[in-house]
Amino acid sequence: MIEFPVLPYPWQQQVWQQYLGLLASERMPHAIMLAGPKGIGKAHVALALAHYVLCASPVMGVPCGKCRGCQLNQAGTHPDLLEVAPEEDSKTIKVDQIRTLTESMSKTAQQGGFKVVVLQPAEAMNANAANALLKTLEEPANKTLLILISHAPFSVLPTIRSRCQLKMLPMPAREQVLHWIAPLLGGSQVAPELLIDLARGAPLTALSLLKDDTLEQREQWQLQLARLSQGGISAVELAAQWHTGDITALLEWLSALLHSVARLQHGHEDAVVARLPADFKVSLESLRSDVLQRYLEKLLHIKRLWNSGANPNKQLMLEELLMDWSALLRSGQNAAAGGGKLSGHR
User: Fold this and answer.
1) If pLDDT is split at 50, 70 and 90, which confidence band does 327 have?
2) CATH value at residue 108
3) 93: which residues sit within 8 A by CB, 6+ positions away?
4) Which residues form the AAA+ ATPase domain (predicted)?
C-alpha cells in the first residue's frame, strides 16, 4: 500500500499547476525530466503527476479517489504505471530493464487511458540502457508519458536529455521548509533548524535524518575525521572502519561538510561549521581554498565513480580519500610549503 492520493509538497505548487495546465490544454510533452538537488521531492511530485494522469475524473486538481484507476493506484497495482529504478544490490539501470519497458510502452494501456513511466535516477542508466531508451523517446506511442528524475541532469546522455522537456526544480525556501517540517517532528528533541542545516536545506533529507541512528552515525564520522585531522588515527585505520558502512551516505556527508567550509571561506556564515568542536573547526577554517576546491572536485569524481556501478575497491578508495585529506590539512597548516598535492585516482 502507498500513500494516496499523492499530492505535491507546498514548495511544488508552481510546477504542479504548470503541468496541470499543460494536461488541460493537451500540450503535455511525451517525456519530461525533473531535475534538481537530492531530497526535495522530485520522485514524489512525479508520482503525484502519474496518479493524476491515470485518474479518470480528477476533482479540483487532485485524483478523485473513486475511479478504477485511483483504486489501482491506491493498491499500488496499476498496470499502466511503470516504475524503473536500479534493481536491488545494483546502482545502474540495465539495458534489459529498458527493453522490458520499451515492450510494455508499445502496448495499448490496459485501462484505456495513459501509460506512465517514472524512471529514476536517469543518470543511473548505463550506456546501453540509455541508447535503448532513445527509440522510445524518438518515436513515442500515443498517450504515453515518460517522467525521468535526475539529481545530475548533465550526467545524462545528451541525446536523452535533449528529447525531454527539462524542468529544474530549485531548493525550497528555508522558511517554507521550516513551516512544513516542524509539525512532523512530534516529540523529537531535535530542533528543525538543525535538521535543515545538516541537510543543506533539502526537506526530505532533513526528515530522513531522524530515521534509525542517522544523526548518531554522522556524529561518529565527524569524531573520527577529527581524530584523523589531529593525528589520533591513520588514514588506513579509518578507511578500515569506514569501508563496512554506508559509503553513499558517507560520501554525501563529507561532501556537505566541505561545501559548508567552502561557504565559510567565501564569507557566508554556516551553521554546520559553527556547531563543530573548536579544535576541528579551527583546522577546517585554515584550509587553503584552492586545495579545498581540488579536493571537492576529486570527491565529486569518486562519488560519480561509486554511483556508476563500477564497483571500485572500497578500502583503497577510502584510503586514498583520507590520505588526501591529511595532505589537505597539511597545506592549511603550512601554506608556504605548497603541500597538499592530490594524487590521481587508483
Assistant:
1) confident
2) 3.40.50.300
3) 84, 85, 86, 119, 124, 125, 126, 129
4) 28-172
